[in-house]
Model the fold of this input.
Amino acid sequence: MKSMYFLACFAFLAVTIPFSGAAETIHQKSPEIFYGSVIDAAVALCEVKKSSSTALSDKAQAIIQVACQKGNFLKKHRSELITHLAKMNVRNNIYIVNYHLNNWFYTYQEQGTGFLANR
Done:
């Protein structure tokens, strides 16, 4: 139980630290840099979940497996996702960027290639 608490705290910090103290400067950077930072933070969170895969329930193992798949997807398609977010002129908002990343990931899970075709 302690390890899960520690893991949850670490995951929270891994995602929030890049955006906390430097929030003003990150939001003022170019959108491409911001999108890359959000993707890198999401990949880091997936890696943290992946490292906690020992001695957990089957449901937790399934969640971790999806997190690993999402991390691999984000790594593999990073430049393509950044380019498409820029073309869509998505605001520098972590929640909006994550919304699009999640939609594209689950579309990719269902359809495979062409996940950005109708976006």
